Structure formats: structure tokens, C-alpha cells
Amino acid sequence: MDDTIQSAYQEEEQRLKDTMKEVDQQLAKLQSVPVYTGHDFTEQVLEAGREERRQRLSKSVKEPYFGRLDFEELGTGSSKPLYIGKVGVDREEYTDQPLVIDWRAPVASLFYSFTGGEGPAEYESPEGIIEGLVYLKRNIVIRQQILERVADTYNRDSDQPAVSDEFLVYRLGENKDNKLRDIVSTIQAEQDRIIRAARNTALIIQGVAGSGKTTVALHRLAFLLYQYKEQVSAEKMIIFAPNNMFLDYISNVLPELGVGDIQQSTFSDWAMNLLDLELRLADPAETLSYWFEGEGELPEITEEVPGRFKGSIAFMEILRDCIKRMEISSVPDMDFSPWDGAVLPRAEIVKWFEEEYKPYPLAKRKERVMARVHRWIEMELKKAPSAAVLKEWKKKASAREKAYGNKWPKYEPLTLYKQIFKAAKGASPMPEEAVSQIPKSVLKSTALDLKNNVIREEDLPALVYLHVLVHEVDGNQRFDHVVIDEAQDFSPFHIALLDLFVKGHSFTILGDLSQGIHAYRGVHQWEEMSSLFAPEYNDYFALTRSYRSTMEVIEFANTILEKGVQSGITAVPVFRSGDGVRLIDYGQEGREASLKKAMETLIGKDYRTVSILTRSLREAKAVHERLRSEGLEVNLIDDGKKQYEGGYSVLPVYLSKGLEFDAVIVADADQAHYGSSAWDAKLLYVGCTRALHELWLMNGEDRPHYVEQDNDEVVVEGWPE
Ligand SMILES: Nc1ncnc2c1ncn2[C@@H]1O[C@H](COP(=O)(O)OP(=O)(O)OP(=O)(O)O)[C@@H](O)[C@H]1O
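That is the input. Now the predicted structure with adenosine-5'-triphosphate docked in place:
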């Protein structure tokens, strides 16, 4: 250790001791106060405050901070060291400087946004812009109260003043376990801008594979909860992710950031729960296997493919049109007569429905009208001249009231949806003219599905929208903020629909068009989503640096995009070099033995997570079975999987999206499995970009043209020595 580093280390060791002592003292003092369990409201509030502090201090005591920033606010004449941690801790005695500053506090933003240079730096505080000079930016690793590492990424007094990536590269080089982790100590400036962006905007983020989209979204939620404590609550925030296993994979980050209770769901689960249907959704595996494992030619993806059409704003408008027209003709075309001689004119009922109850949602209006009809009957019954007549009238009224109610439309989403698809045959109250805009192929396939009581994921936006059109969105169904991960697989209809459920267009929408392997339902351009919002309500960010993989893996994957997709957005690597991407021919050893040998070799290198990616689920199952039978402890990941166990896995490439592994083996990287289409190239791209440290591609037949073979700096041929 040279002298400067040694003295920095000693300084930080002393500071750590002092900090822990103070945190311990504060904690001990709080713990000595008996927990209040009584009914006095004021005492309860005080107890809640103490409990919150107890939790914060207990969290802080193990790793109180991870960074230090020496900053001199302009005009103050002295620089102060600010220690930044996952949770803020005030000093026991009030001073203007906390013991540890929460990473989400305005001043802490400098720790992330400062990118070097002699000139003044600034941050935005509630009082306005604060300017000053940064003297030192230091990363500090503390584990279980032990100071492990001190690394200066900027020092004004040193001859290398630029902010260095060294600490980031050290962090990225670590092996990963089975869960995504927080990145508070190394958030990059481009990510910080997104995390701290204003709340009431639909943020659309195009980020290359491994650029930290998922991670950034989770940190943004923690930031919003801190910054807008009074306006937002965790229970009213939701993250939509592609499947339950992915939700499990990301489930550690928010608790690590001290945030709980945020809702996490797939869109399907959320929609099915809201709709409360008796029916079950058709198994999405059917659709996946059609698109990813079909033997024959797949249809061209046009706007008329069911997934694309049912996700379009055009479809949303057709539904709105249908319900509007149905609304006009809702009141049955007849006067209501409970028994001969008594008549409630239709005009009167129309007045109730169209004027008096207009502010209510459609379904409620019908309910109110029917309740009023009932009250009218009761008044009329009072005119009965005798008990016998009364009995007779009551009997008739009861039957006719029921029959009259049945003449009203049924404001129930599935019934309405079925009627829309029946309208083409003229067999429903829905306007044929509106329905005629639905492409014939969609009409036919959906009508058949609905006849068989089958609903698919792609029908859910429509069903929820119909629900909204007739019931409106209940106050307690509204969100303060919505995060959509892997948003390239969502449709404009999904977003427009969710916009009805979120206050102030408060969205974080993240995805990567280059990973758009579900193009038969997802968006092809971000404008499809951004155009749904007025310019002042949407913002677009691009993340181009990839933090996950080594330079070799990224350069290799970029070539797949350049040669195989042409329009793909390529990634810029962080300067982290590793082994070349290995290309291995199964050769004489054959496929099964080679895959086993590859897995064993990589496991032998002490990686914590290694995966074999196959082209189809069928192949994944076969490889998994074979490896298990030969004594290798590997997990199979299929689309029903709810938990991500980490370790060694076999899975089809299309299910690997969003995940990452220390080492990845792509099985069958040949032309028979990855054809010449852009779609196939995207699939291979997704697979390759899952690798953090090592990527091996194995093949029997010829490799696809977009696989880089001749660049010695990026690829190596054959087995390792
Ligand atoms: N600033 C950072 N510091 C350290 N690690 C980071 C940083 N940003 C991202 N990472 C790491 O990079 C990896 C990729 O992050 P993440 O999964 O959030 O990216 P993504 O953009 O959602 O990826 P993909 O689209 O490929 O699924 C994770 O291991 C994450 O911890």
C-alpha cells in the first residue's frame, strides 16, 4: 500500500469506528424505550416514529455508508466530507450535517452526477441550484462492520483528476448469485438522471442489454418514495414484469433499499384479478411454442396479427365506439308496464338514465335506474284497491320487472366482448359498422376462441378496458406510479389502458427494441408509446452502456445485431476485459457429451451461475434430463417456473430474457436453430447478452452468418487447453 492509500485507509477506519459507536449509542437508547402497545393515538404515532428509526439504525449499523464526497459549497470557504449510505442517520446532537446522508437526498446526487473537471459542480435542492467544488469522491466498501476497501475515483489534489471507472469495474467483476442486487454505490450519471427524473411524466427508457434498466427502475421507486413521501405510497406503486420467476429474481433489491410493500405482478395476473372471471386464461405456453418452436414458416408480422391488432389503439377505439353506441340504445325500446293499466313511459326512464344519473359509470346508471323503477312500482302498488288486487299486481310486477331488467345490456366485460365478436354475424346488439373494422382473420380466430370459452393474454387489455368503460376506475384501484419492465413486449393499448389507472401519467417504461423477440405483440418503435402522451408528459432516455458483460461478449453480441438485425441498437461496453467468446464444434464428441463437458468445465471455474440456453423448451427438457441422469445438479427453467434458484440451469433462450449468468453456453448455435431472419438473430442476441464473464457457443452444423468467427480479439475457437 502506498502512503496516501494507507493514510486514507486509516482515516476511514477511524471514521467508521466513530460512526458505528454513535449509531450503536442511538440504537441502544431507542431500544431502552419500552415498545408502546396501547391505544393512545399520539403515543402510537410516536412509537411508529421510533420503530422506523430503530429499523433504520439496525440497517445502518452493519454497513453505514459506501461513499464519501468532499464538497465545498460556493461562498462557505470550507469543504465538508459527506458520507453517503443506503439510509440516512442524523446525529444525536443536532448539527447542520447528518452523520450519514441518504443516497436519495439532493446533495447525494453529486456523488453520482459528478463526472470530473476542475470547474464548479451543482445539484438541485429544494432551495434551488447549489453550486460548489468537489474535492474528493471516494468509494468505501464495508462488510459486516469491517472496512474492506477504499478507492478514490476522483481527487482534486491528485495528478489524475478524471473520475475513474476502476471501482465500477471491480464491482462488475464479481460473480452473481441468484438474485439481482442494488447498485447504490456505483450508480452511473446516466442512470442517476433517470432515477431522479420528475414524477409526473411518462418516462420511456430505451436501454441496451445489461444497461441496468431493471435495476434503475427499482432504484427510481425507492427515490420517488423518499422524494415525494407525502404524495406517493409504496402500496400504490406497481411493477409489471414478464413472469413470476423474474419477479422472484428481482425481489431482493427493494428490501435492500429499505422499501417494502410495492406491488409486483405480471400484467395477466393483475388483469385477471381485476376482472374476477370464472374462466382461466389459455396457457401462454401455447403461443410461445407456436412462435418459438413451430416447425413450419411463421406468418409475416403485420398489423393484422392478432397480438398486434388487439394491442392497437385502433382496437381500443373500436371498443370505445361500440360501448358509446350501445350506451345510446341501452334503455329498452318500450314503456315499462308492471301490470295492465300502469305505465312508466320510456321517455321518463331515458331522462333518468341520460340526465340524472349521467355522472355515474354505465353499470351503476343501470343499477340506479332499475332501483328507481322498483321504487316507482312500490308507489304504484299503494294504489291497489284491495288485498287481492295487490297480491295479483305484486306477482305480475315481479315477473315483468325481471323481464324488463333482462332487456338491458349486460355490462359485464366478457359478455360485451363476446357480443362484439358476434356482431359481424349480425347476432348481437353491437354496431356492425364499428366491428367491421376488425380484420377478418382476427374476427374469425377470436370468435372461435370465445365460442370455446378461451381467452388469451392478448385479449386482456380489451377486457379490462371494457370493464373500465362500464365501471370506471375505482379510486382505490389507482396507482401513484407504474413501472413496466421489458416494455418492448407491451402494446400501445396496454399503456393507454394503464394510463387510466395511474395518477399524472407517472410511468417508468423500460425496454430494449433489440430484444423485441415478441414482435407479434410488442411495439416496434417507442413512438407507438410516446405518442400517447402530450409532449410535456413524456420524456425519453437512452442507456447505451452495458454494465453486465465483458467487452468481448458485448462486441460479439453487437456484431449479431449489426449483421443479423441491421436496425439494432448496439451497446457500448464498460472497459472490462475477459476471455474471448468461445466457439466450439461438437465434433466427434457429439452434442450431448460436449454440452455436459462444457457445463462441467465452467462449473469447475467456480462460477456461481452457469446456464445452457437451447432454442426450444423441448430441447431444454431433453438436455436437462440427460445432464441429471448423468449426475449433474441442474435446474430446468420453463415458463411455469415461479422461483429462480440460481446455480446451474437449462432453459430455452426466449425465457432467459431479463436474467443473467456468470457463464452462458448457447447450445446449437447453428443455422438449423438460428435462421437468417432478424428475429432469430435477436433471439441469439438475447441469449449471448445474458453472460457476465464467459460466453460459449456450441454448434454441430454451420453457424449463422451473423456469428463473428474471424476476429481474434473477440472470439477463440475450440475447447480450452
Ligand atoms: N451502475 C451499476 N453499477 C454496478 N452494476 C450495475 C450498474 N448498472 C447495472 N449493473 C449491473 O448490470 C447488470 C444488468 O442490469 P439489469 O439487469 O438491470 O439490466 P437490464 O438493462 O435490465 O438488462 P436486460 O435488458 O439485458 O435484461 C446487473 O448485474 C446489474 O447489477
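Residues 621 and 636 are 7 Å apart (CA to CA).
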